[in-house]
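Below is how a single chain appears once it has passed through the pipeline. First comes the sequence as given, then the structure the pipeline wrote out for it. We keep one example in the README because the format questions we get most often are answered faster by looking than by reading.
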Amino acid sequence: MSIESKTYTALVLDEGSSWETRSPLHLTVTPPCMMSEAQAHEFGSLLRVDLHRFGAVDLIGEGEDWFGPAHTERVRRMARTAELLLLHQLAMDALEEIVPTVDTTYAYDKYQPHVTLKNGSGSFARGEHRSINELKILRKDPGSGLYTVSTTIPLVE
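Resulting structure:
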């Protein structure tokens, strides 16, 4: 029996950073959900097909905000560009094929692209532009509680 693990997709903005002690600066594309290793592999296969030659995703920093239940997480909102919203839509469609019960509270029309601004996790300024060439599937190790990159999906050839 395969152990389920919390899994999500992200655009990583701080490639030089290690995932060993903290999450590097990233933009979550699909919400975290539980899935088995086999499901994660199938999800990656679907994304490779659906996102083949998708193209780089340009991220543009907008204003700061506070998220979370107690509004204690400082975030940088990202521009809701057509390409970012399409990436989210395609990734969500693939995810729902694998995990039909995924929580879509903050998905599709309610998707709020942002990066969490934590001490030591990098920064993203208002008006800053970055181009990202790959999407990563991240899985939480049940033992250590740390996320690791399980699959990298190139968006450009």
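Residues 135 and 153 are 5 Å apart (CA to CA).

See the next section for the split statistics.
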